[in-house]
């Protein structure tokens, strides 16, 4: 059986020499700035209170020496996510992302989410302000595999832990299987899964989820019913944007799909993933084999 969600997350940190890879790892794992960091750290476990959904996280440091390129490539093959670092105080390391690192990751066919982390934010000259969105927009447009960019400082304990929070979030609640960023729509496989879930929850088969059906759905997925005011709030949000999303009975399929697209656009992917996993879907939005009745596969040779 394929796992419904990953059972561990391995985050590999790469980047130019001296961009602060090891310091970032130690700062995130110990909540303190290390005065002396060895050139290459052993694999480091994040403390358990950082685990999303209780899934353990290992951070992997890598060498920047050209002769260790092969070892880094091996580590990247095992990665669930990659953190790619540059030094906020050295513009050439930012240029190196699109000139060297990102093309290299494509060449190695690394197909995991990439988080770009600008380290040593404390060293940046305050007189030359940088707007991260403006600097990163062209790079992110060229390399769609970048999930997010964040600036941090290991010395000042600024956003060091957030770097790895985003990285594990992209593994456990990935965007790609659910949503097409180009067209800003749900992907067909995700739509099919949500349609099936809607039909299973529409107990009286009247094409809409009544308040009772919505509550049964909420309890199954999130272990708590909605308050009547919350039900009204959900309906109001849908009705304002999409009148056909609600009818006199309750929430229609169109409304149900619209809500999930909205959650995803607002970065609340865990909501949709919780629903999909509760109904037996894995990270590829496929049902586990044991959830499919064997009679589905008994076919005559000519069928």
TrEMBL record:
Keyword entries, A-Z: Calcium, GTP-binding, Hydrolase, Membrane, Metal-binding, Mitochondrion, Mitochondrion outer membrane, Nucleotide-binding, Repeat, Transmembrane, Transmembrane helix
Molecular function in Gene Ontology: GTP binding; GTPase activity; metal ion binding
Domain Miro span(s) in chain numbering: 6-173
Location within or outside the cell: Mitochondrion outer membrane
Keyword tRNA processing: no
CDD domains: Miro1
Membrane-protein topology: Single-pass type IV membrane protein
GO cellular component: mitochondrial outer membrane
Assigned protein family: Belongs to the mitochondrial Rho GTPase family.
Name of the protein this chain belongs to: Miro domain-containing protein
């Amino acid at each position: 059986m394929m796992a419904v969600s990953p059972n561990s997350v391995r985050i590999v940190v790469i980047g130019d020499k001296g961009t602060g890879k090891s310091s970032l790892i130690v700062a995130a794992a110990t909540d303190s700035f290390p005065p002396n960091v060895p050139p290459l750290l052993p694999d480091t476990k994040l403390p358990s209170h950082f685990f999303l959904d209780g899934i353990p996280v290992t951070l992997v440091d890598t060498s920047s020496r050209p002769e260790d390129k092969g070892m880094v490539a091996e580590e990247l093959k095992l990665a669930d996510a990659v953190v790619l670092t540059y030094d906020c105080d050295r513009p050439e390391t930012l240029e190196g992302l699109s000139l060297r690192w990102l093309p290299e990751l494509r060449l190695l066919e690394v197909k995991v989410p990439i988080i770009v982390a600008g380290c040593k934010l404390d060293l940046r000259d305050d007189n030359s302000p940088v707007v991260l969105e403006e600097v990163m927009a062209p790079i992110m447009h060229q390399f769609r595999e970048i999930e997010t960019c964040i600036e941090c400082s290991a010395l000042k304990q600024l956003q060091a832990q957030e770097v790895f929070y985003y990285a594990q979030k992209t593994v456990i609640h990935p965007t790609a299987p659910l949503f097409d960023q180009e067209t800003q729509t749900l992907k067909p496989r995700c739509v099919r899964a949500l349609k099936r879930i809607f039909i299973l929850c529409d107990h009286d088969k009247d094409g809409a989820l009544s308040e009772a059906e919505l509550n049964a759905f909420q309890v199954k997925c999130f272990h708590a019913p909605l308050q009547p005011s919350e039900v009204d709030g959900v309906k109001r949000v849908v009705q304002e944007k999409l009148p056909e999303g609600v009818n006199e009975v309750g929430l229609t399929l169109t409304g149900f799909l619209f809500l999930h697209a909205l959650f995803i656009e607002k970065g609340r992917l865990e909501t949709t993933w919780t629903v999909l996993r509760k109904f037996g879907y894995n990270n590829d939005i496929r049902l586990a084999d044991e959830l499919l009745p064997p009679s589905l596969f008994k076919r005559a040779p000519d069928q």
